[in-house]
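Bug #77: duplicate submission created two jobs. Keeping one. Sequence:
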Amino acid sequence: MKLLRCFSYLCLVVFSVHSSAVAAQELINQEATKLWLKEKQETIELISQQLADNTIDKARLLELRQTLRSARTELQYKVDVIKPVNNSVQADLADLGAAPDEDAPPEPDNIQKLRAELTNESLIIEGLLTQAEALTSKSSRLLEKITSLRRTLFLDGLFERQMAVFNTTLWKTAEEPFYAQFSNYKGIFYDKTLRSLSVISGCILLVVFLFATLVSKKRLTIKLQNAGREHVFRLVSASLVLPFLAIGLGLLFIYQLFISQGIVTEANHLLIQKVLMLTGFLFAVYLMTGRFLKAALIRSHLRYLICVVALLFAVDTLLLESGKIIGVLIELAVVQSYIVSLTFAFILGLFSLFVLIGPKETKDYFFPRKIFVVFLMISLSIIIFNVFGYAALSRYIFEGFVLIFSLLASILVIRAVIRPYFYRLDKRFSQDNIGEDSEQVIYFWLCLSLDLILFFICLPFVAGIFGTEWQYIQETIKQAFFGFKVGNMTISISNIGVGLLVFLTLLFITRVIQRILDQKILPKTNMDTSVRQSITQVLGYVGLIIALMASISAVGFDLTNLALIAGALSVGIGFGLQSIVSNFVSGLILLFERPIKVGDWLITNSGEGIVKKISVRATVVETFDRTSIIVPNAELISSSVKNWTHADRVGRVIVNVGVSYSSDPQQVRDLLMDMITENKDVLKTPKPTVLFKDFADSALIFEIRFFISNIQEIFSISSQVRFDIWEVFKEAGVEISFPQRDLHIRTAPGLEGVFDGK
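Kept job's structure:
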């Protein structure tokens, strides 16, 4: 016992020496951390003082925000580093246990020393952690303040009133800067090199544009002649791909040509880029509206409106960008805003009014009629804002209108071009032929993925159109792409994209395997068609479940937690979704046990018909009237069902016939037996039989019983047998009975002697 106690003390001494070394090392890190936190605190306090200044501009706010975001990221990282150290120290203190009471024997000196060191270290680390967390919170609050200040500056600039449009002083003040700016534009083209390059570039772009336009236009004309109305927009969109690519490549070549000749400099590169982009924008608008007009999707009036508005937007943007480089007075910018926005408002308002007071058929305008009321309200708003001097607000509405509709048109064209390829992909790799009743699972998920991708692509552009800084948009996209934590799970666009890609890939592989099995492997096994269909269908459901689970795991969800949630929801599913679960389980039983197969002839409580499809929820039965009955699988499992073709297709047919009482029953039986025996559609085994069934009121009833190889031909064979009976009886002189009645008159006053011929 004493030896064990000595060994324990020795271990504590070694542990204390090691802890002292670690404490010394942490003490050095703690000092460095203190200095670093002090620097961050000074930086944050300085930014806080600068934000208190009401004269701070938007550019400075962007710089301060970037500094604060970096500081907050570093502070959060420091918090994540300090927390494990603090937890480790707390765990060491917990291992030592509580300090002994005053009445208890004192601890050994080394343990007392170790407890004191750990307690001191814990206090220091907790202080550093508290300081880092406080600075992190303060930086977050300052970032929120910067966002509020930027919003205030944006709204103040947007609603700032300028000189009214009717103020003559404004126009006189802008006259001199206008001539000066025009002289600067004129002086640019004195450079012979620039003039030569401009001419060459224009010729290159024109040749490329004409070539791509003529080639695709000819193909579009041929396709439109044989296309339905629902495919016109898709065909027009597809015909725009080649011209747009040609225009883009031509503009890129021209830009590289300018760079090689030294035309592009640091001062004018933004202007040159915008000139080329606006040129491509005008070409694209002209080409797109021309194709829409050729396909009768829009009217010529709408095309002129779109082209004029696009030209107005391009000229306005070019003048603004060049004005920033040259440097013009604010009065000239205000006058330009008045001219451009009022021109746009009058054009849009007159056109909308023309549509609203004209015929009510607006389908050829590509827009619903109600949207022209919105257009009219926008034009009136711009005019009113200009009258009261809100030039910035009018320009903002004009630019937002053009950019939003340009973005919407681009998205619709891209969507229309890509979706047909998804349809072909689904048709190629689906196990069934694509038809109106096909599920088209791959097509649905691919289209849904495309719509989600286009939606998320649009969000940054829409945010930029409505005044959000591109730097902030880039930071938000970066944060959203790399994700943010919710508990122990990281949610990010990248994870969602990977999960979606995993799901589509596995679903695609499943469809390929189904296609190979259905067309290459299973037909060589001599299996029944319904068995093959059941195998491929079950494989599809298994693949869908595996793809779903794998995609959920790739997104970042813990499947064990998902299992717990599923277990917790099982009670609710059992009560609330009882019928759905029952049908699902019944569907699995039908697919595996196969009491009912595709092609079987069923008689159920819901109706009679041929089984066309068995899914996990319901079975589709097509009646002989060509209507479909959707029978829940639970009904097929829980109730009795008559299946004519369960084991095989052999079935018995019964045909009744009645002959008159004057006929010889033995002769009738022989005639019927000879007739049914000679019929090629009647099986020899089991042998057909003819029974003298009954004495009816007006006939002797005979019953013919025979078997056929395919019970689904019962109606055609029964009809042919009846034709044969008619021919046989006609040749033999056997009379087929009809209802007869004998009338006995006992007394008939007034009719005496009539029947005696008197």
